[in-house]
Structure formats: structure tokens, C-alpha cells
Amino acid sequence: MAIKHFGSMAVDWEQRINFDRLRTERLSRAKSLLQKSEMGALLCFDMNNVRYLTATHIGTWAQDKISRFALLAQNDEPILWDFGSAARHHQQNCPWLGDRSRAGIPLLRGAMSPEMGRAEDVAKKIKTELEMRGLHNEPVGIDIVEPPILFALQKLGITVIDGQQLMSDIREIKTQDEILLLNHSAMMVDGAYHELYHAMRPGFKENEAVGLVNKYLYDNGSEYVEGVNAISGERCSPHPHVFSDRALCPGDPVYYDILHSYMGYRTCYYRTFTVGYAPQGMIDAYTRCREYLDAAIALVKPGRTTAEIASVWPKAQEFGFPNEEAAFALQFGHGIGLAIWEKPVISRLVSMEHAHAIKPGMVFALETFWPSKDGWRAARMEEEIVVTETGAEVITRFPAEELLVVGKKYFTVNGPLSTIREDSPEPSARIQQMIDEGARELGGALALPSAD
Description:
Creatine Amidinohydrolase, Chain A, domain 1, Creatine Amidinohydrolase, 5-stranded mixed sheet, elongated
């Protein structure tokens, strides 16, 4: 049965996404894997990890500030230190935290200088909690940290180890409600692509596409549009990973990656189009790109490995790059959840020698790329996949089986203008006859310019 998706409201007549269950199951998974580790506690500054452990959020403006932190000790509940008045808001509105929501201000990414003592204040807060639980001599795993806080913790005798890998393992397998949220998030992008499909035309600019997608997603409940990669024309190869103000032209390829979150849960979702028409070379590139993606999807099943999936993708040298690092992320798979990149990572750069097992409950995106022989066109596409007990289900549903043509259809006196045609077609028999006649008049042959 297909993964369900519901309306965005809570109702009394249908069980939809259960946020109490989401909070409980995420924290339970974190406690379970922490219990099996060597760590006495986990200290998280990554806002996605803080949200996973505490089910709190203060807006995407804080996403890159490293200004909130949470401590999860063995056999205990998480403690949150948050940004000023946000702590009181949580006390009033997050009963699952109770009095474990407190104010705590670190360094604001270096904006507060060392003599202000913020790093030492954070370190003392953490050591006090560890001592109260008899864990001050146990290793503390940290996901990311500002160096002065790391040094302050070490100065107080706290052993700091890598906690990022443990949090990545915790978040690798999604709960049932996380999967429903990821499905809903992808559905919103289905709608955004529909709007884009009808809006694109010659003269429509990449930045207009970015604005259209942002408006559609925010109007429909998006929490955060992290980015819209809008890439067109000669910008398609090599992939620049950033939009511009370039206008679409007839015959242009154009591809998009739409990255947003619904209730924290992200999308990474590419589609490719052509404006008005496509030459055969672009169609061939699209077909090959699709084949690489479909071959990878066919291998997604519990018990398979990331190496098996990566093995069906071309080597970097086959599409114009010297090595896998230079071609990284063009043939790519990555977990998706509260962050765009989670475990597992699937790439020839790492997966062939470091295979990772595919497990039920994983949700990841697979994305492929193939350049056209003309040297500037290219195809890019991506699907998001939920690993089930028996196989996989694709949750990105905007059509991509064949290359879609956008823009108003043009009509000639002979009917609709073909959507498959070359930029510089070979001369017809009549044109060649005219050239030959001109050559005879000049007493020689007229050479046509080379297509190269």
C-alpha cells in the first residue's frame, strides 16, 4: 500500500501524523543507541539534533548560529539551553520539557569575544549536570562545537569524543511519523513543479522560478525553503549549484533542485525540462540519466548495500571528470530527514570500499546527471525513496519518465511545430540545390561552414 499523506490540519475523525508519538519515538531511539555507546552523555549544538532530542524549534534564522544546545545524559531526559526568551516560551508551551528548558547563551559564532566568558559559562553548565548524575568522568559526545567551548570543557576535565556519528546513526532510521512528514514535504514539491511547468516560457528568468517556488511552498505551509537551484542553458554543464538571473531561451534545458522543509523534514528533489524543443542529443542525455537512476532504484531493498547501488553508476572519467572527488554528488545518494544530507551516503567516492547496508526505515534521495554531446546541455534528476520491509517506494511523484517540454506550443501553417528538432539542422535538398546553383555560377564549389 502507498504511504499515506493527509491534509495539513489535525482532525478528530482521522488518525493523521501523531506528534506526541513522533517526539516519544525519536527520543526513545536516541536513548537506546546512547545506552549502547561508550558515552556518558550527548551534547548537541546542531539545531537539527537539538530539535530531534527536544522537539523544539525557534525559526530557521537560528539554523547556522550554533546558539542552542541540548544535553542528553544516560538514563535521563534531555535538557535544553535556548536563546533568551525562547526558553520561557518552551516552559509555557512544551510540557514534555517541563523545567528542563533554560536560558543559555554561548558565543554567537565568535561575536562574543573570549574575555566575556561565555565559553566557560557553557562548560560549567554542562559539568554541573554531569556531576549531578555521576557522569563527569565519562566521555561526552559532541556533534559540532565552537573551539573555545571545546577547550573550556577539556579544561574542566571533561573528555570530549565524536558524538556526530552516534547522532547520525540515531537519525538514519526514520519513525513512522517521520516518514509521513517526509512524504508530505515531497508532495508539496510535486505541486511546486506543476506551477513551474505552467509558468516557464522564453524570457522567464531563473530567479523568477526561485520566487515562484518560494511563494508556492510558503503559501502551502513550508517552514523553510532552503534553496531552489535553478540552472538553465549553457549553465547546465558543469553544474554550478546556484541560480542566476539568466532568462530561458528556446531550446534551453533547465533543471531545478527544490530543497525545503515541512515540520523540519526536508526535500531534495530535481527535475529537468526543455524549453519549446529539444535536439536528439538532449533527449539521449535525458534517457541515459533516467536509466542510471532507474537502475539504482531497482537495487533498493533491505539487505542490499550502498556499493551495489553505486556500482551501476558511471565512473567519473566516463562523463568528463578526472576522478570521483571532482565529480562528487553528480551520481549520488544521501539520506534525508531533518537535514538534507544524512546517512547513508551513496557515491563511487566512498561506497565501493565502504559499503553500508540498506535497512527498512531508511529514507534517501538518489540523483543522477548526464551531459549532452553538445558540451553544454545536461540532464539532472532525483527521486526520494522510502525503504520498506520488502523493497522501496518512491515518494517524489512529479512526472520524469520522459523529458517534459515547457512553454506555449507553436503552430505553423503545417500544424504544430515539432518539439524534437536541432538547433542547426542539416540543409534540405532544396537548400543544397540552391548552394549548388550558386557554386556553378561562380565556377566552383561553395563549402558549407562546419557544424563544429
